[in-house]
Amino acid sequence: MSKIKILDETTINKISAGEVVDRPSSIVKELIENAIDANSTQITIEIKNGGIKYIRVTDNGDGIPPDDVEIAFYRHATSKIQNYQDINNIYTMGFRGEALSSIAAISKLNLYTKTQDDILGTHVEYIGGKLILKENIGCPSGTTLIVEDVFYNTPARYKFLKSESVETKHLIEVASREALINANISFELISNGKMIFKTSGKGSIEDNIYDILGYQLKGHLIPISINKEDILIKGFVSDLDFYEKNSGDILFYVNNRYVFDNDYKKTITESYKSLLTRHQYPVAVFNVLLPANRVDINVHPSKLYVKLYDKDLIFNAIEQEIKKKLVKERSKTIDIAID
Ligand code: ADP
Ligand code: MG
Question: Name one GO cellular component term (predicted).
């Protein structure tokens, strides 16, 4: 008998879940992104105990038709791409079809979903990736996912979870980044019954910055808009009468997707060099909108890193424009002082 065996789907999902889901905040990220992709205008996120015990994400989006609900939980099942070519033209947040199967594999999950066209919705329950219950049910149009007892069946992962307050901090960070840039969606984040933030969904990123990063920024934001060929760079930076003690609010987005990029952080700090002192950091939020084939988002399963083909051009433009605006700001202040 052969010693080599192909693992069953539940085991594969449990193993590969680690790439997509490493802590409660990554579950919340995936669920929010699914809600965004489903054309929602309202997303409510409710968590308890840092998301370890309980996460609920409710949206008013497209919903999943009854026949598709079970398929959505298969690995690599997605409605967003059909072949490898499509990866060059992605404007949705998801495309790998890994989130639902991964999350279901390491938690107790309930999903309620209904499309506009259906009279009845569907409720499914998965425990450790196994379908326990499926029923028709009356529910509002849209989707609600409830995820409980994260990593209950993967003790090694569970052990790596930090304290509830640290997990809550990560979760607020992730939800904030998503909410801030999606200004046409009204977001609400509630942690242990307490409202953390709420955005209006009225389309203003500037208002979202105040609602999420804080009202102390009012009167201190400089808008920036740069157009280079088919690339549009839009953002806000803080003026020189404002600074923060860490670089946590230097945020970068590519086609509305939050991404990590150390060169971006360097670009921003370089732009403020000699204008702010050491340990003083600006707020800088930039969103680069470009054709999907100018960026590779398939670098890592978390989709937090991207390859930007026009990186130098973009970062040079950002640096020059910030410097120009800050000099202008400064001369304005000097003018007022002289007057
Ligand atoms: P991906 O987002 O990469 O397609 P997921 O595993 O996150 O993969 O989701 C699988 C599929 O389930 C999605 O392609 C989508 O069709 C459906 N789906 C998941 N969440 C939602 C939601 N909140 N609203 C509507 N459809 C959803
Ligand atoms: Mg997804």
Answer: mismatch repair complex
Q: Evaluate: CB of 57 within 6 angstroms of ligand 1.
A: no
What protein residues have CB closer than 5 angstroms to ion ligand 2? 34, 94, 99
Give the global pTM: 0.94
Judge whether 189 lies within some domain.
Answer: yes
Q: Within this chain, do residues 231 and 316 fall inside the same structural domain, yes or no?
A: yes
Distances (CA, A) of 36 to 23, 42, 178, 254, 255: 21, 9, 9, 15, 13
Looking at the CA of 103, which ligand is closest? 1
Same domain, 271 and 171: no
Interacting residues of 235 by C-beta distance below 8 A, sequence separation 6+: 223, 224, 225, 284, 285, 286, 287, 318
Q: What is the ipTM of this complex?
A: 0.99
Query: Mind listing the pLDDT tens digit for each residue in 114-159?
Result: 999 999 999 999 999 999 999 999 999 999 999 999 999 999 889 9
Domain presence at residue 308: yes
